Amino acid sequence: MYDTASEHAPAIAAAILLLAVLWLIPRTLSMLANRGIRWAVAPVDVYRRASAITKLAAGLMLLTGAIHLALIPSHEGATGFLFVIDGLGFIALGVAAFLTSWWRRPAVLWLVSTIVAYVIWIIAGWETPDQIGIACKLIELVALGLVLRLGPPGRRTWPRRVWRAVAFPMLVSLTTVGIWVGGLVHPDALHAHPGALLQPVATEATPDQREAAARLITDTRASIARYRNPAVAIAAGFKPGPASSAEPLRHFENPANAKIILDPNHPQALVYAQTKHGLQLIGAMYQMPRAGQWGPDPGGPLTQWHQHEGICFSPFGFEFSFETPFWTCPLGSTSITTPPMLHVWIIDNGTQGPFAADLDQTVQKQLQGS
Amino acid sequence: MSIASRVITAKTPASPSSVPEITSVLVVTQASFSLVAGLSAIPFSIVEPGFRMLSLLTILVAIGMFWLARNLRRQGRWARRCVIALEALSLAASLLLMLLPIGAVRGPVPVLVNLVMPASVLWLLCSRSGRAAFRRTGRSDARGAA
User: Fold this and answer.
1) CB A337 within 8 A of CB A323
2) Which strands, in side-by-side order, build the sheet including A249-253?
3) Which of chain A's residues have a Cβ under 8 Å away from the Cβ of B109?
4) Hey, which end of chain A has fewer CB within 10 Å, N or C?
């Protein structure tokens, strides 16, 4: 769900370059100062006197500033202009941390404004949440936490104590929720639903592709008809997936077919619906051997593969939660990206069609009630 | 006094008291992420009673991490030991998941959150200045555990 946009790639290069520069400059200046170069003494002295928290907070602000400046070419109009101001502001504050005593409050304001603005942009749909943007917010949140720790203790009243304790975790949590909400409200065209990424395909199917798609349905239906009885499928090597009251569909997978690609005689899984009268065969699932390896799509846009990502799987094997934008899952579960898959529904799948990533909701309700 | 010797005199190591502050900020950030992950699992756990336990456990661990972060800031040695154990466990699990072909770690965000942050906390707490910062206080240990 949260990919790295290709146009944001320069930000990674900028971050690596800046980290190298931040590592090199203090060492070079220190070496020059030790050799008696006069102009190098003052900056080294200033750097040495700064606390470790100040150095780290300044370093993180310089890092996010450099990333913002590297992202300017991929942002047009007002957003691009804001990136210029933001990037320069962070760099100025990163330098000011070593030279001034007043930098703390402006830094808090700058960091909070940038984080809040990003969440607003995401919720409004003006920006798509991608990993570079989210990583940038992580850097800014940690920098903010450090800058807040540098503040004077102030009066020790209870409201102040409570506010100091909850303000930062609350902002981290609200930022996570905000990015999440924005991503769910404005999914891009290649997301069938949260957690399912679709294969990029052409918009129109050619007559040959329509014919190939129809042939795939016919061949699949003919091939899997022998497994209407789940016991036959089990005898043939298909292993039943876990039963769950939350998931009305059950996948029976055959590990022996794992490396075979789009062969109607050897599908990777059979899909059964849990009805009142037992399991009913409703389709087959083809799956590629590795994540990110899109399969052949003989039907073009009609046979579009999808892969599941950003879903937290529990040890019991059910999908039960979405991963947060900061890539965290509940304890005891882990984020899994499945290899691309293609469903072929051998029953009428309503408006969704025979190759849809999901079963039509109306059809699903009918099956559950039957 | 020569310029070089002035520089060398100024070359004092970073204040050991910075380590508890920096690690507490990192642990609070991690705890906030865990809290959101635990809370977000609640709607999904409505249909699967077994998952209520995982959701509740995640929230409890997040609360525990907030408490540990508070005691790290107070230089509690007990908190330091607990955080080292938790972060080592988290890092080991993330490294193991990274080796498996399940796509658990893809891109800069999971690398930062699941590898760089726990590794940084571990490095800070196990560094010489980190050990020194927590060696200084003896009473805080009892206060943290209380």
Assistant:
1) no
2) A191-193, A196-198, A306-308, A341-345, A278-287, A269-275, A249-253, A239-240
3) 2, 131, 134-135, 138, 325-327
4) C
Lowest-pLDDT range, A86-90, A96-100, A208-212, B52-56? B52-56
**Which residue has 């590990």 as its token pair?**
A255
Q: Is the pLDDT at B78 greater than 80, yes or no? A: yes
Nearest to residue A184, comparing CAs of A291, A318, A323, A76? A323
Please report the ipTM that was assigned to this predicted complex.
Answer: 0.84
Indicate whether A144 and A208 sit together in one domain. no
Residue A262 pLDDT grade (very low, low, confident, very high; cuts 50, 70, 90):
very high
Closest CA to A140 of A94, A186, A82: A94
Q: CB-CB: which of A145, A325, A327 is closest to B114?
A: A327
With a CB cutoff of 8 Å and minimum separation 6, the contacts of B133 are B16, B17, B18, B19, B20, B75
Confidence band for B46, pLDDT divided at 50, 70 and 90: confident
Domain span including residue A82: 6-188
Question: Helices A38-49 & A77-99, crossing angle to 10 degrees?
Answer: 100
Which residue in A41, A180, A333 is closest to B7 by CB distance? A41
Q: Which of residues 261-290 of A touch B (CB under 8 A)?
A: 290
Q: In chain A, which residue's Cα lies nearest the Cα of B65?
A: A169
Q: Quick check: is A274 in a domain?
A: yes
What is d(CA A200, CA A295) in angstroms, rounded to the nearest whole number? 11
Interface membership of A156 toward B (CB under 8 Å): no
What pLDDT, in 10s, does the model give residues A32-70?
A: 998 888 888 888 988 888 999 999 999 999 999 999 999
Task: Please state, rounded to an integer, the average pLDDT across all residues of chain A.
Answer: 87
Contacts A–B by Cβ distance under 8 A: 176
Judge whether A87 lies within some domain.
Answer: yes
A127 Cβ contact partners less than 8 Å away, ≥ 6 residues apart: A79, A118, A121, A133
Q: pLDDT at residue A127 above 70? A: yes
Q: In terms of CA atoms, which chain B residue is nearest residue A5? A: B107
pTM comes to 0.82
Kindly state whether A328 is in contact with chain B, defined as any CB-CB distance less than 8 angstroms: yes
Residue B72 CA to residue A359 CA, distance in Å, equals 50
Boundary-marking domain end, from A136, A153, A188: A188
- Cβ count within 10 A of residue A295: 19
Please give the tally of structural domains in chain A.
2
Q: Give contacts of A334 with chain B, Cβ < 8 Å.
A: 97, 102, 104
Spatial separation of the C-alpha atoms in residues B12 and A203, rounded to whole Å: 65
Q: Under a CB-based contact definition with an 8 Å cutoff, are residues A350 and A276 in contact?
A: no
Judging by beta carbons within 10 Å of its beta carbon (0-12, 13-18, 19+), is residue A141 exposed, middle or buried? buried
